[in-house]
Structures are given as C-alpha cells and as structure tokens.
Design brief:
The protein is α/β, with parallel strands linked by helices. It is 35% helix and 14% strand. It has a domain of 257 residues: Type I PLP-dependent aspartate aminotransferase-like (Major domain) (Aspartate Aminotransferase, domain 2). Strand 8 and strand 9 form a beta hairpin.
Length: 457
C-alpha cells in the first residue's frame, strides 16, 4: 500500500508524507509518490549553502550544459568493469597519457597512470608505491624494512596524515615558519635518513595556495645524496597546481623534467574542472610503480593493469575529463585558469588595500590567497567574526589557524574557481568592505564565543 492513498493530483504539500514529515532514522514502511520523495529531498537540501558562493572548497561547482549531458548519459558506467566498458577504459588510458605529456614525461609510452576517486586516493597510491619500492630495496640488501618514514611540510593536506596512519609510515613534518612559508629544502637533511621512503612536495599548499619549490627541494636532495648516498624520490601533490602550472607558469620546473620526481597526482575535480569524484596519478616511468601492486584485468582478449584502493567507482567523471580535454584544449584551459587567477589577484589587491589586513600571498601561484589581520588593528573583532558576517550574506570565506609552529596566526582564505566571475568578485569585495567597516565601527569587543573555523584541512 502507498503511504499516499489520496490522488496524485492532490496539492503537493497536502499529501500525507509531506503533511506529517519524513522519517529521519528508519526507512518508512511504505512507498510514496516519486514527486513527493523528490520534493522532500529538495526541501531538505535547500538548507545547504549555495555551492558557487562556497569560497572554501577547491572542488568544481560549475560545468556547462553539454558536460551535464555527458554526465547523465554515463553515470551508470562502472569504471572497474573494463570488460563491459572497454572504450571508457581506453579513454581513461588516453587521459592519463595526456597528463603525462602535459607534465613533461620524457616518454609517455613508458609512463603509467590511473584515475582515482579523488586526489586523496591518488596520493595514497603514490605513497604506497614509495613504501613498497623502499621495502623491496631494503630486503634485497638484507636490512630491516619495518620503520619507513615520509617527509613533508607541516602544512600538508590531511590525506597524507591519513596515509601515514593507515599504512604504518612515520610522518616527519618540516614546520613552516614566517621565514620559510613552504617546504623549500631548508634543513631537509635533518629529517631524512635511510628509512625515508620519499619527500612530498605540494604544488598549491591547501592553507594558502602557495607552490612549494620542487626544483629547490630536488636540489637539496641531490646534495644529500652526494654526501650520504641516500637516493630519495619526490612525489608531487599537484592536487591544484598540477592543472594550473602547465598553463599559467609553463617555464616553472616542478614536474617530470626533474628526474627525482617519480610520481605526480592531481584532482580532476579541482582545477581539472570536473564535478566531484575524480583524481589522477601518473608515474614518470612504469618501473617506479612496483609490479606486485598492480592487478591485471582481462578485457577484449587482452589485459589492462589496474591499481586502486577502490573497486567499483563511477566512470562518468573520467568521460567528463576527456570531454573537457577535447572541449577546451590547451588554450581553453589556459584561458579558464587565467581568468580565475585574474579574479584572485583582483580580490587580493582589494583586500590588501584595506587597513585591517595583511596579505599572506596574492594568488600568483594557484588562484588562491590568504590574509591576516594587521597586528594592532583592533581588539574588537577577529577574522572569525568577519567569516560569520560574510556567511550572513551567503559567502563562505573560511578563517582558521595556520599549522603547527604558526598556530598563533589566524588567516582567512579565498579559493577562486571557474564560475566565480569578475562580476561576482566585485560583489564579494563590496561585501567585505562593508562588513569590515561595520566591524571597525564597533565600540566594544564582539562576544567572545569560541573560534569556529568553517574549514578543516
């Protein structure tokens, strides 16, 4: 029996399921009309924020109508079913080879790569390849292989902490400071040893958007190898910058032009411009991915290598990536990323011009920048108060403390993505100016509620 025993023609909000409210923690006993269930879902999610005004997330919130058509025609494809969907598997192969070439692989034919659910999975695969290769070398030398460590910045994204936790690797964090705002090779010799499986370099630090100088890190590791014999590889976490630098800073050497860079990961669903659910990882040469981590899947009478933490996963996002590579081409990607950077620099200049703020960076790397309150500007309000005032106007602009050794510094950050137009940016800047003027006009401090960051790294 249907919960809604009255006519489907009855006014929507008078139907029984709507009139009495939907259950929250148990599956309802009976079915309801599709239109009613759809309306309930839409009613509840209308309370969410507007994704386009979410300036905390790096993840794409806009795609064109043709992309949506590609999505809806392919969201039933399971990426793991390579026998059932061989052409989708071939398109996945095309995409990572395009990325291998974009990242200056010396020979994409000898590279290897895969799509993933997001760049977090891609990072974990890169880390696993490091760990397994290190273990194999240690055992071949008759040495202990039980205490691997991974060296990274204290500003690393939490997926790397998860990797170390889940896969029994000691994390070694190089603290960032006001003098060394990123991992730049400074004092690296104090953190690496014979148990170091690799060093992570970030192309676009999550906290601020700044690039870590990969070539400088590689040079520091070259010097360490010269003095100690330790040959330590680099994984570049290019979650954001991997799809920015090739288009906006093509002369910056950070990728497979550096022999020490064994692998690079990126988020297709960030500046790859695809809806959520896609990452990529590519190894410079297939030999850097230990073969005992790779499973062979048969399809069309041949074999396809697969390396992933997930099994069933959507194929639609892979097709969306291919659509965008075809739709935009190199020049189209360059134009989109340049527009985002132009908007970021516009906002950074406007915010930096306010007496209340000091810029941490200006969006010259990826289109992301952060700022802090000028010392001594006010005792009446904080960046958390500004965050709350902007949220009242629909904007999510997170404030949060910096990582270890800089936790006394609170910054606020804007991520500019495709879809944040210059027109919207002008409205945002006007709102920031208006709310800062309001806060500066306070005659006494704001109530001292606990600081509430809207974003977690």
């Amino acid at each position: 029996m249907n919960d809604e025993t009255i006519s489907p023609a009855a006014p929507l909000f008078t139907r029984p399921t709507e009139a009495k409210g939907a259950p929250r923690h148990v599956i309802p006993q009976n079915e309801s009309l599709p239109a009613t269930a759809k309306q309930i879902v839409e009613d509840e999610t209308i309370l969410d924020g507007n994704a386009r005004l979410n300036l905390a997330t790096f993840v794409s919130t806009w795609m064109d109508d043709e992309a949506k058509d590609v999505y809806t025609s392919s969201f039933d494809k399971n990426m793991i079913d390579k026998d059932e969907y061989p052409q989708t598997a071939a398109i996945e192969d095309n995409c990572w080879r395009m990325l291998a070439n974009l990242w200056n692989s010396p020979d994409a034919g000898h590279s290897i790569g895969t799509s993933t659910i997001g760049s977090s999975e891609a990072c974990m695969l890169g880390g696993l390849a490091f760990k397994r290769r290190w273990q194999q070398l240690r055992r071949a030398q008759g040495k202990d292989a039980s205490t691997p460590n991974l060296v990274m910045s204290s500003a690393v994204q939490v997926c790397w902490e998860k990797f170390c936790n889940y896969f029994d690797v000691e994390p070694r964090f190089v603290p960032i400071t006001e003098e060394h705002k990123t991992l730049d090779g400074h004092d690296l010799e104090k953190y690496v040893d014979e148990n170091t499986i690799g060093v992570v370099a970030i192309m676009g630090v999550t906290y601020t958007g700044m690039y870590e100088p990969v070539a400088q890190i590689a040079a520091a590791l070259d010097a360490i190898q010269e003095h100690t014999g330790l040959d330590i590889p680099i994984h570049v976490d290019g979650a954001s910058g991997g799809m920015i630098a090739p288009f906006l800073q093509p002369d910056l050497v950070w990728d497979f032009r550096l022999e020490r860079v064994h692998s690079i990961s990126t988020s297709g669903h960030k500046y790859g411009l695809v809806y959520p659910g896609l990452g990529w990882v590519v190894w410079r040469e297939a030999r850097w991915l230990p073969q005992d981590l790779v499973f062979q899947v048969s399809y069309l009478g041949g074999e396809m290598p697969t390396f992933a933490l997930n099994f069933s996963r959507p194929g639609a996002q892979v097709l969306l990536q291919y659509y965008l590579f075809l739709r935009l081409g190199f020049e189209g990607y360059r134009a989109v990323q340049q527009e985002s950077q132009d908007v970021a620099k516009y906002l950074a200049a406007g915010i930096g011009a306010l007496d209340a703020f000091e810029l941490w960076n200006d969006g010259s790397d990826i289109p992301v920048f952060a700022w802090r309150l000028q010392k001594g500007h006010t005792d009446n309000w904080t960046l958390y108060d500004l965050q709350d005032r902007l949220r009242m106007r629909g904007w999510l602009v997170p404030a949060y403390p910096m990582p270890d050794d800089l936790t006394d510094i609170t910054v606020q950050r804007i991520v500019v993505r495709n879809g944040l137009s210059m027109d919207l940016a002008q409205s945002l800047l006007a709102d920031i100016q208006r709310e800062v003027a309001y806060l500066d006009g306070l005659q006494s401090p704001m109530p001292t509620a606990a600081a509430n960051s809207a974003f977690h790294h």
